[in-house]
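Note to self: user wants both folds in one dump. Writing first protein now.
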Amino acid sequence: MTMPVEETEALLKQAEKELDGAKTADQIRQVWRKYYLQVGHRSLGRLLIGRSADEIVARRRSRQQE
């Protein structure tokens, strides 16, 4: 079962803020554990390498329309 895009978008934006504020590896791991079951490892990894939550959501929306 997949989560609606609106819920995913909200969670990704929260995760993005928390990852941006994380200063240590332990803080990043805490954020990861908090969100990986809802948004997935790939999405979190994309946030870590600098993609925005908006980019990730836009891609998900386009994939759903196909």
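First done. Writing the second protein, which came from a different request thread.
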Amino acid sequence: MRLLILLLALVGGFILVGMTVAPSQPVLRDWYIANACPLLDQLSTDMCAPVRRAASEPGRI
């Protein structure tokens, strides 16, 4: 039971980082779009929307 809770917490943290931190960090954002978004899109396309929106904004570093 504890292992399941730990696994859920790790997955939730991974998604949370992608939605909050990754849009403002160019290297992390690029990695997240290339590696994590294809997997997360299978669950919901809304999870990667903030990262993709930040990547498409001109002038955003």
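Dump finished. Worth passing along: Residues 30 and 55 are 8 Å apart (CA to CA).
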